[in-house]
């Protein structure tokens, strides 16, 4: 096989999806160290480039644009892809339209998931899609036709820093998009407040952190804990996502919901306790003593995305004994 000089990767989704794709990109770089990698992604996830040196360029495509604007975005993407002279393209999409989109780029070597007859005709290799495994491993299957290199976990390189003994970083939020779509994956602020109090009672120092989407949640927690010993509110102190990665790396333990900060915790190697209610921890968290799902044994879980597109009103899956969570720390 002729070594590619330019590779295009199409991976639409949130920043967590981009972090989960990093092992596949890493293996491509190991196999083709001199190649230039361009990542096509949604505008909301372009900060992934700040977390890694594996990506040379990004192309932003707003696939969630309304009406004709969405197709205009795709046409702009095709124009860029056609004239950039890529040698290979990989796409994580399972939509039946993806093989057509890749074919229209004119790129000779095209790799994607098997989504039916068209994918087998239009793709160089239609890779079997196995959704019942850790997402990074699932994405990595896309590059196995061209490399024998294997990268297991995503990695974010930050400045070297010592762990702060007995420190616990708490990130309670999820994206506003999840909330707007009625996908409830985290506790209410009062539950997070109670957990933080119990952690502090065990002699730990708690740092609270969050992004713009978490403002309301953070304010409620902070109002209840203001003046509490061994508690620091770090909201508003981070300028970018790399700042969050550095703070996460310094913490002894990270506690968060199923969200992008969880994937950052994994990628910087910090012990991570992640809350899993309606979603499936087997698909989003690697099996390790270092990365621990906070969950209960509700018969109905996991349900989100596989059985339903929104969460139920009861949310029994989020009813967890906080003392058991403290023990995990």
- The CATH superfamily of the largest domain turns out to be Glycogen Phosphorylase B
Order of strands in the sheet with most strands: 3-2-1-4-5-6
Overall geometry comes to globular
Cα gyration radius (Å): 21 Å
Q: How would you explain this protein's 3D organization?
A:
It is built from twelve helices and twelve strands. The protein is of the alpha/beta class and 329 residues long. It has two domains: 138 residues, Rossmann fold (3-Layer(aba) Sandwich), CATH 3.40.50; 165 residues, Rossmann fold (3-Layer(aba) Sandwich), CATH 3.40.50. The strands form two sheets. A six-stranded parallel beta sheet has the order 3-2-1-4-5-6, sandwiched between helices. Helix 11 links the parallel strand 11 and strand 12. Helix 7 crosses helix 8. The model has no long low-confidence stretch (mean pLDDT 95).
Q: Could you give the topology of this structure?
A:
Elements (H helix, E strand, L loop, with lengths): L5 E5 L4 H17 L4 E6 L15 E4 L7 H16 L4 E4 L6 H7 L4 E5 L3 H6 L2 E3 L7 H6 L23 E8 L4 H5 L8 H13 L3 E4 L6 H11 L5 E3 L7 H10 E7 L2 H9 L2 E5 L5 H4 L6 E4 L27 H7 L1
Parallel strand pairs: 1-2, 1-4, 2-3, 4-5, 5-6, 7-8, 7-10, 8-9, 10-11, 11-12
